[in-house]
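Supplementary Note 2. Why include the ligand at all?

Several targets in our set were suspected to adopt different conformations when bound, so apo predictions alone were not considered sufficient. For every target with a known small-molecule partner we therefore ran a joint prediction. The input for nicotinamide-adenine-dinucleotide is given below.
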Amino acid sequence: MKEHQGSLFFVFLLCFFVEYIHAILARLCCFGQQCASQNLYFHLCKIYASPLYFNKTAIHLSNIGVTQLAALPSLVADRQDAGVPRQLRNFYIKRVSNQRTYKDKTMPYNVILVGTGGQGHAWCQRFLPPNIQDGLLNVVAAVDVNPAAFKNAQEYLGLPLEKCYTDTARAFAENPADFCVIVTPPAYHEAVVDIALAHAMHILSEKPIADTLEGAVRIAEKVKRAGKKMGVTMSHRFDQDKTTLRQELRSPRNGALDYLICRFTCNMRNFGDWGAHFRHTMKDALMIEGSVHHLDILADLAGARCDTLYAQTWNPPWGEYGGDSQGLVTMQFANGVRAFYEGAKTNAIGLNGWAQEYVRAECENATLIMDRRRVERHAYAGGRIYKREGEGAEIAPLEQAKWMNTWLVEQFVQWLDGGPPMETNIEDNLQSVALIFAAIQSSHTGQPVRVQELLETTRRQVQAAL
Ligand SMILES: NC(=O)c1ccc[n+]([C@@H]2O[C@H](COP(=O)([O-])OP(=O)(O)OC[C@H]3O[C@@H](n4cnc5c(N)ncnc54)[C@H](O)[C@@H]3O)[C@@H](O)[C@H]2O)c1
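The joint prediction is reproduced in token form.
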């Protein structure tokens, strides 16, 4: 026993020392706060906010008179450094409090995911986890009318079965949340929006806003009247290749933009080739489920709202679709830029399918081409020079941590945090829905459609009916 006494005494001294240092740090934090030295306070909290010590920090601070524990994370959150305050806040939530006792702009938002099959699988597996890891959100419940789709929420989001619901109203009633993510087919978006707004929630929804222009305008109107925020995940506009092209296009070295060409052609003619069955049975699948992305991208690249649009859409006999699966669209924008779009789901071969689209931007001083993710530039070098595509100077792809919906989730959270509205806020995104329904109308009437007039007329009708 005697031979252990020395080591026991040493361990005791060590514990005493650690505890002493801990108390000093806590007092320094307190001092930093009291003397309003936010910098000192922030840095001390940064050092101090380790998983091991957070509980103790909270207890120490309350023991020595900092009773407004809720103020701790929000004081720290006021600093610009994003990473550490979120960690500090997360530990606060997990270890000190079982509930949200305060709201500040760096708290993870509680989210309900509606629709966990199909594209919902990608939300569970790819789009939400990086944002959960960044401390931006927690998924508190998931909904799907098909219980077989719960496995995605369970496997990738770690949700227990009792937090997976087949009844949307019940899920929202039993799980307080800040916003919901809607990943159901477009015809079912509005019903979820109604439930979300009844629970005072913000909304992030898959495109298109709805399956009719009236429905989309009605949703936007309801969201505005409720004073809530709604964003739409126009994934492809925020993909790496399109973002790279857009940045190059905006460079002054290319001069003015004259016109744009977009090609999206797939070999998906057989029933089920395009995933969910509703896409093969609905009317106007190409426009509503596909071209909504491409016309949106063209309008974004053009840098102005579409003024006039003319379209022809059809379904060839070999296309196993309930409506039109092919389309050609000509557009003119308010700034004079013109665009032409070729969209096809039933071709013999897919030249430019999903995430592999072709866009050519003809500018005053250069021709820019994006083709199957490669972006190249052909500079104007005098007359009578002909080149093949692929012979231009490659533009290096932009690099960043998040693309597509993963990035859009972050943008939505920044908007909720008080930042500027995300580009695809519902009001602005009505433009993309107006484009596809203008194309559908043009194809039916054989006449060009004035897109802004169509949108404003629909808005007046919807407002009168609400
Ligand atoms: N890249 C993209 O941007 C992209 C790709 C695919 C789908 N989407 C969009 O995602 C949405 C869903 O399309 P999808 O392909 O996943 O459809 P899907 O039919 O494959 O899956 C929809 C899921 O929602 C569930 N569901 C249907 N109605 C529901 C309801 N009322 N309440 C709860 N759950 C319900 C279904 O059981 C299914 O699990 C659509 O708006 C679509 O346009 C976007």
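The chain is about 45% helix and 20% strand. The pocket of nicotinamide-adenine-dinucleotide is lined by residues 114-120, 143-146, 149, 168, 183-186, 188, 206-207, 235, 275-276, 278, 289 (CB under 6 Å). Comparable summaries for the other entries are listed in the accompanying table.
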